[in-house]
Design brief:
Layout: H1 8-15, E1 20-34, H2 41-49, E2 55-69, E3 73-77, H3 84-91, E4 99-104, E5 108-111, H4 124-134, H5 139-153, H6 168-181, E6 186-190, H7 198-211, E7 218-222, H8 226-232, E8 235-240, E9 243-248, H9 250-277, E10 291-296, E11 301-302, E12 307-316, E13 324-325, E14 328-332, E15 340-341, E16 347-348, E17 352-361, E18 368-378, E19 389-393, E20 400-404, H10 417-420
Parallel strand pairs: 3-7, 3-8, 5-6, 6-7, 11-20
Antiparallel strand pairs: 1-2, 1-4, 8-9, 10-12, 12-17, 13-16, 14-15, 14-18, 18-19, 18-20
Helix pairs in contact: 4-5, 5-6, 8-9
InterPro entries: AAA+_ATPase (IPR003593), ABC_transporter-like_ATP-bd (IPR003439), ABC_transporter-like_CS (IPR017871), ABC_transpr_TagH-like (IPR015860), Bact_Polysacc_Export_ATP-bd (IPR050683), P-loop_NTPase (IPR027417)
Organism: Bifidobacterium bifidum
Protein name: ABC transporter ATP-binding protein
Length: 432
C-alpha cells in the first residue's frame, strides 16, 4: 500500500486538535479615495465621457488567510498603514470585506479604540452597562461581571461620578477593564498594553499571564511592541502593504518585523542623500560637510557570534587635508544607555569624499536593538576633550541601526552578564 507523506505543516496541524475559533479566508478590503468631485450633472457627465471616475482605489488588504485556535495568544504586527486595524475591524464585523470571509466561533469582544461608546455625561456605573450593551451583553450578564470590572479598574469610590470628572488615566483603566473582564471567548486588543500607570500595567501583565493558562480563552493582539509579542504570544503574523509576509513562530515574526524597520531606515538614508544632492542640508550637516552618515555593510539582524561591519561615509570640503576625529557611540535603543563609547580612538587626516570601514564584534552583546551614532570633530589637544570644534554629527536619519538576537538568552541587559562583567562576593560581616 502506498503511503501518503504528510508535510511538516500538515503534521503539526494533525497534532493540534484544538478547535479553530477564528478563520480568515482570502479576505480583501478596498477603499475608494475621492480625487475629483463633480459639482453638477454637467461636470459628472464630462468626467464620465473622459473616463474620470472621481476616485482611486486603495487596496488595504489583499488575500489574507490565517486560522486562530482556541487558547491561542495570537499576535498581529506590522508598520503603521499596513492594514492591521482594518483587519481587526473586519474580524469585529465593523467593516465588510470585498472578498473572502471571516468565521468566528464563540463570543468575540473587540477592544479596538479606548473608550469608544463611553458617554462623559453618564456615571462610571452607567457607562459600564452602556459599553457592555454595545459589546452585546445582556443586563444580567453585565450584572455578573460588574464587580470584577470595578475591582480591576480600582475605581470603587468613583463609579457614581460622571465620567467627565474622571482623569484620562481613570477613563482608560475603566475602558480597559470592561474589555478584558467581559466574559467573552475571544478578546481582540489593538495597541492597548501601555494603558494606565506602572502599577496598573503590572496588574495587566499578571492578567495576561493568567489568561494564557486558560485553554478556553483566545486573545488576538495587535501591537508594535515585539517584547510583548515574544512574552505573550504563541503565534503571530506580520502584515506589510496589506499582505502577510511572515507567519507562525512568534520569534521569527518579531525579528522579521525588526528587520523591516531597519530596511525603512535605509530608505530614509537614501532620501537624505537625494536632499544633499539638491543642496539641502539635513540636521548635523552643512556646506562644509554635506555628507556624514553611517552605512551598514553586514546584515542588520545578527547574533553574538557575528561581527557587524559598517562604513562611515563623509565629505569634508576643505582646501587642504586636516586632522580630525570621528568619535562613535553605541546606544541601546529600547533600554537606554550607552554600552560602548569609543571617544577619540579614530583619527583621520584626509579631506574630500571618503569612506572608512569599521567592524564591531558582538560577542559581548545580549539581545537588543542598537544604534551607532558619530560626530566629526577637530580636537587640538586630546588631553582636554572639552575643547573641540564640531564639524558634523549624525542625526537619527543618518545613524545606523542593528539588532542582536541570541536563542536561549534572557533579554534584560544590553551586554551578556558573565562575559562583560561579573560581581564577586568577597566576604560577609554581622550587623549590629
Amino acid at each position: 500500500m502506498a503511503e501518503i507523506a504528510l508535510t511538516e505543516k500538515t503534521q503539526e496541524e494533525a497534532k493540534d486538535e484544538r478547535p479553530v475559533v477564528l478563520k480568515v479566508d482570502h479576505v480583501a478590503k478596498m477603499f475608494r479615495l475621492p480625487t475629483e468631485q463633480a459639482t453638477g450633472l454637467k461636470m459628472a457627465f464630462l468626467n464620465w465621457t473622459k473616463g474620470i471616475k472621481g476616485y482611486t482605489k486603495q487596496h488595504v488588504l489583499r488575500d489574507i488567510n490565517f486560522e486562530v485556535r482556541q487558547g491561542d495568544f495570537f499576535g498581529i504586527v506590522g508598520r503603521n498603514g499596513s492594514g492591521k486595524s482594518t483587519l481587526l475591524k473586519i474580524i469585529s464585523q465593523i467593516y465588510t470585506p470585498e472578498q473572502g470571509s471571516v468565521t468566528v466561533k464563540g463570543k468575540l469582544v473587540p477592544f479596538i479604540e479606548l473608550g469608544v461608546g463611553f458617554n462623559p455625561e453618564l456615571t462610571g456605573r452607567e457607562n459600564v452597562y452602556l459599553n457592555g450593551a454595545l459589546l452585546g451583553f445582556t443586563r444580567t450578564q453585565i450584572d455578573a461581571m460588574y464587580d470584577d470590572i470595578v475591582e480591576f479598574a480600582e475605581l470603587e469610590d468613583f463609579m457614581d461620578q460622571k465620567l467627565k470628572n474622571y482623569s484620562s488615566g481613570m477613563q482608560v483603566r475603566l475602558a480597559f477593564s470592561v474589555a478584558i473582564k467581559a466574559q467573552g471567548d475571544i478578546l481582540v486588543l489593538d495597541e492597548v498594553l501601555a494603558v494606565g500607570d506602572e502599577a496598573f500595567q503590572r496588574k495587566c501583565d499578571n492578567f495576561f499571564a493568567e489568561i494564557k493558562k486558560d485553554p478556553t480563552k483566545t486573545v488576538i493582539l495587535v501591537t508594535h511592541s515585539m517584547d510583548a509579542v515574544k512574552k505573550y504570544c504563541n503565534k503571530a503574523i506580520l502584515i506589510k502593504d496589506g499582505e502577510i509576509i511572515a507567519s507562525g513562530d512568534k520569534n521569527d515574526v518579531a525579528d522579521r518585523y525588526t528587520l523591516e524597520n531597519l530596511k525603512v531606515e535605509r530608505k530614509n538614508e537614501e532620501k537624505e542623500k537625494d536632499k544633499e544632492k539638491e543642496g539641502e542640508y539635513p540636521l548635523g550637516l552643512s556646506e562644509r560637510v554635506p555628507t556624514f552618515r553611517i552605512l551598514p555593510v553586514s546584515e542588520q539582524m545578527l547574533t553574538c557570534k557575528d561581527t557587524f561591519e559598517f562604513d562611515v561615509e563623509y565629505d569634508l570640503r576643505d582646501s587642504k587635508d586636516i586632522e580630525f576625529y570621528i568619535p562613535m557611540s553605541v546606544l541601546d535603543v529600547k533600554r537606554g544607555g550607552v554600552p560602548y563609547d569609543c571617544g577619540v580612538s579614530f583619527k583621520v587626516n584626509k579631506t574630500g569624499h571618503n569612506k572608512v570601514h569599521f567592524a564591531l564584534p558582538l560577542h559581548l552583546f545580549n539581545d537588543g536593538d542598537f544604534k551607532i551614532i558619530a560626530t566629526m570633530r577637530i580636537i587640538p589637544d586630546t588631553s582636554n576633550l572639552k575643547n573641540f570644534e564640531q564639524l558634523a554629527f549624525t542625526s537619527d536619519e543618518n545613524s545606523c541601526y542593528f539588532s542582536v538576537r541570541n536563542p536561549g538568552t534572557v533579554n534584560f541587559a544590553g551586554l551578556l552578564n558573565d562575559s562583560a562583567m561579573r560581581i564577586d562576593e568577597i566576604g560577609m560581616s554581622a550587623c549590629d
